[in-house]
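To assess whether ligand presence alters the predicted conformation, the chain was also submitted together with heme C. Input:
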Amino acid sequence: MNKTVSIINSISFQSILLLVALCTFHLFYENSWASEQTKHYELSQFISPETCGGCHTQIYEQWQGSMHNLASDDIIFNEIANAGLVGLSSKDEIEEAEHCQTCHTPVGYITGFPRKTSDDRTKIAPIAKQGIQCDYCHSITGAYSIYNAQFNYSPGNGEDDPGVKRGPFKDSDSDYHKSEFSEFHTKSELCGTCHDVKHITSGVWLETTYQEWKQSPYSKQGVQCQDCHMYQRPEYPSTGSTKRVKNPGTAADGSVEREHIFTHYFVGANMAIPEHYKAISKEQDQSQGKENISIISKMAEERLKNSVDIKIDPKVELKQQNKADAKNIKSQNSEENRIIIRITNNGAGHEIPTGVSNIRQVWLKVIVKDSKGNVLYKTGIPDKKGYLPPNTISYSTVFGDGKGNPVDNLAKAREIISDKRLKPMKEKVEKIDIGEFEGKITVEASLLYSGLPQNVADSLKGLNGMNIPVVVMKYVKQVVSQ
Ligand code: HEC
Ligand code: HEC
Ligand code: HEC
Ligand code: HEC
Ligand code: HEC
C-alpha cells in the first residue's frame, strides 16, 4: 500500500471514528431525556385496572373517574392537543406538539402506541385509554430526572405473572402479586416526574408544580403531594389550611386494618371534565362506578374553597409620593385613594394556579360601592357570555415566542412573559386606585377559579359550547374609610 493512500485511509478511519463518536454523542444528547422511553415494554405486560379492582375495590372506585383515569380521553386535553398541531413553522415546535401522550397516555407511550399526538386515537388499546392507572404507577421503580415522565419501570408479565407491586407498606402480603416497599412512592418526586413539564426543544418550563412545591415551606416540613392529595375524600379537603385527617381502613377487601389508606381520587381543581363525563355516562346510562365522577367535581370545589385567604385593609392608602402634602391638602389629592387587598395562598403546596397555568384562570373580582350603594369601581366581572374584561387582575401565566409576543400554543413557547401567581404561604398585595369618595365605602373582593377561559372553550369546536364552571374560592366584604 503506498504512503498517500495509507494516510488518507488513516485520516478517513479517524474521521469515521470521530463521526461515529459525534453521532453517538449527538444521539445520546438528543435522547438523553428519553433514553428510558427507548426501552420497550409490551402491552401484554400491563394488567387492567379492573383486575386490580377485583381486590382493591375502594381504591379502584376512587380512581375510576379521576383525572388520572380520564387523562387520555380528556376532551379538553385532546382538543387543545389537536389545535396545537396546526400552524407550526419549525421542526422543534412540531416535535413538542407531537409529544403529548408521554404523560396523558403513558401505558400506550411506553409500549409503542400512541407515540405521537397525531396518531389515530381509535387504535389506542383499551388499557392504554384508561390513562394513568394502577399497574403503571405501581410498576415504577424510580426516576432518573424529575420531569417529562423519565421513570424506570419494572412491570410483571400480565395477569398470570403479575410481578411486584410497589407501595407504602413494609409488611404487605398478597396471594396474587409480590409486594415491595418503595420509598419513591411515598415522596413528591413520583408525582413531580410528570407534574413538571419541560418543552423538549426550547427547554422552557411549561409546568413546574414539583419545583414550586420544592421551594415552598411544605417541602421543608416534609409535607408531600400525597399528604394533601391522597388524604382527600368527601368532606375532608385536606389542604394546607384544613386538617389532613387519617383515613383508616383496609387496602384490599378483607386485608389487615391499617391506620391510613391513601385515597386515590387525585383531586385538583378540574370540574369541567368530571362534569362532562358525568353527563355522558348518564346519557349512556353507564352509571356503574362512574357516579364517582360527580364526587370528584364536588371535591375539587371543596379543595378550591380551602385554598386562599383574603383580607381588605379597613383604611385606604394614599399614594406614596403625595403623602406629605396629602395631610394638608387632602381633598385635592383624594383621587389617590387606594384600597389594599391582601391575598394569601394558605392551602396549596404550590402556586395558584399551578400545572397548565396558562389556561387556568384565577382572578380577582372587586366591587366598590359608596354609602348610597352606587358602584364606584368594579373589575373582574364576566360578561353575559362568561368572558372577562381586559382590565382583569389575573394570575394566569403568559408564555411568549422569544420576542415578547404572547403565544397560546405552548409548542411555540420560548419564554415566560408574565408570572404573577400566588406563591404558597405568601401574601400578595393588590393596590387599587378608586378615585374620589366621601365617607365610607364597601369593598367586596373575591378570588375566582375557572379551568379554561370560556372564550377559549367556545373557540374549540369539539367542545360543543361546553360550560366551564367558575368557583368562588373566597369572598370577603369590608367597610373601608379614609
Ligand atoms: C411530562 C408530562 C406531560 C406532558 C408531556 C404533557 N402534559 Fe398535559 N398535563 C400534564 C399534567 C401533570 C397535567 C395536570 C396539570 C393541571 O391540572 O393543571 C396536564 C394537563 C393538561 C391539560 C388540562 C386538561 C384539562 O382538562 O383541563 C391540557 C389541556 C394539557 N395538559 C395539554 C397538553 C398538551 C397539548 C401536551 C402536548 C403538547 C401535553 N399536555 C403534554 C402533564 C403532561
Ligand atoms: C398516579 C400514580 C398512582 C395510580 C394511578 C394508582 N396509585 Fe396506588 N398508590 C400510589 C401512591 C403514590 C401510593 C402510596 C402513597 C404514599 O405512601 O405516600 C399508593 C398506594 C396504594 C396502595 C396501598 C394502600 C393505600 O392506598 O395506601 C394500594 C393497594 C394501591 N395504591 C393500589 C392501587 C390501585 C388498585 C390503583 C388503580 C385502581 C392505583 N393504586 C392507582 C400511586 C398510584
Ligand atoms: C387477588 C387479590 C389482589 C389483586 C387482584 C391485586 N391485589 Fe394488590 N394487594 C392485595 C392484598 C391482599 C394486598 C395486601 C394489603 C395490605 O398489606 O394491607 C395488596 C397490596 C398491594 C399494594 C401495596 C404494596 C406495598 O408493599 O405497599 C399495592 C401497591 C398493590 N397491592 C397494587 C396492586 C395492583 C396495581 C394490582 C393490579 C395490577 C393489584 N394490586 C391486584 C390483593 C390483590
Ligand atoms: C404518568 C404521569 C403522572 C404521574 C406519575 C402523576 N400524575 Fe397527576 N396527572 C397527570 C396528568 C397528565 C394529569 C392531567 C390529566 C388531564 O387533565 O387530562 C394529572 C392530573 C392530576 C391531578 C388533577 C388536576 C386537576 O386539575 O384537577 C392531581 C391532583 C394530580 N394529578 C396529582 C398527582 C399526584 C399527587 C401524583 C403522585 C402521587 C401524581 N399526580 C402522579 C400525570 C401524572
Ligand atoms: C399543602 C397541601 C398541598 C400539597 C402539599 C400539594 N397540593 Fe396540589 N393542590 C392543593 C390545593 C389546595 C389545590 C387547589 C388549588 C389550586 O388549584 O392550586 C391543589 C391543586 C393541584 C392541582 C390542580 C391545579 C390547577 O389549578 O389546575 C394539581 C395538578 C396539583 N395540585 C398537584 C400537586 C402535586 C404534583 C403536588 C406535589 C408536588 C402537590 N399538588 C402538592 C394542595 C396541595
